[in-house]
From TrEMBL:
Domain of life: Bacteria
Gene name linked to the record: selA
Protein name: L-seryl-tRNA(Sec) selenium transferase
Domain L-seryl-tRNA selenium transferase N-terminal: 2-37
Pfam families, sorted: Se-cys_synth_N, SelA
Signal peptide: none
Amino acid sequence: MPRTDAVLADPRLAATAERLGRAVVKDAIAAAQQRVRQGEIEPEDVAGAALAALPPHATHLRPVINMTGVLLHTNLGRAPLSPAAVEAAAAVAGPADVEFDLATGARARRGRTALAALADAVPAADDVHVVNNNAAALVLVATALAAGREIVVSRGELVEIGDGFRIPDLLVSTGARLREVGTTNRTTLADYRAAVGPETGFVLKVHPSNFRIEGFTGSAAVGDLARLGVPVVSDIGSGLLEREPLLPDEPDAASTLMAGAHLVTASADKLLGGPQAGLLLGRHDLVERCRRHPLARALRVGKVTLAALEATLRGPAPPVHQALHADPRELLDRAEALAGVLAGSGIDARAVPAEATVGGGAAPGVSLPSAAVSLPERLAAPLRTGDPPVVGRVEGGRLLLDLRAVHAGQDGDVARAVLAASR
Ligand SMILES: *Cc1c(COP(=O)(O)O)cnc(C)c1O
């Protein structure tokens, strides 16, 4: 059995140890030595086997090709960053002027350039702030504006956002009390008016972003709530900054503020297409109370996030925008080309029309015409564990690889992954 330090001296492994760290390389060598003991490989192949088994990066998190047909898949990290955002994030990995004024040499407002980009993108907002995610934005608003007081909210908007986390529980955890009004399907302005009083911290509107109630329904308009004499906070969810004609029911920050909301909260990694962050936009005095609250320090974002957010706001349209606006005819052409290549290698592959969804807590019930490569279901597991992992969805006994969330430049990777998985 070759000794570990002898194998580590292999120049290729030594170079990898420089890049990924010694521990990762030693683990790979130990695994290769084990394979020798089990008679799977020869002793002289240890270095090669270790090299082949090493992860490409110093992390076990792996980039995945999302072919689920869910554009914003929370379990797959929601919005993919634009190349501009990736570049901006990498550029500030070292020391950066995140909280420093290079002109004067003095301390400066943290993240001011990202905040300015957000303010420029939504002129209807007097002021803006950025925290770790939308849940953090809600916690901060509830703490700063309603701890020990009441948040008036409709029973139809007590939403579970996923993985067992519920907005009402989140709000109550801050020490605020919920004053529930109306019913599941209907809540009127009069319901809110009857509940608002000296104990009210604010009225909260929550966008039902992952479900739909249809039939005999009714809710009060933000503009009417804004005249009740207390702050109105609107959690719009998806982070659309302006109207998206393709998604007419999805609220956006500009229209919601224009309609009268005093404060809007949103996620940055849904339809905005940016990094995980929570956005607060609205009246200066309310944003300032949130920004000045001690909790704000615990919820602040890092420079990498700020850089990616600014590049998303100022740069070219992010991938989620392209996926949303992809032409179904072109998607079908791509699916046909891919299926043709695979069928040529003897794989049972065909192009089929498919239905994609926005997902990630946005546009529930909206179906986007798409196209997929249909494959035998047994390929699902080897594709998930391949390199790169490809995640599709199983439907009617077939594995569908939906192309809507995939950049056309990746079709070659998909073809290679399917060929490797079917070997
Ligand atoms: C997604 C969502 C949240 C949670 O946002 P995170 O950024 O995941 O914390 C809260 N409210 C609504 C309406 C949402 O859609």
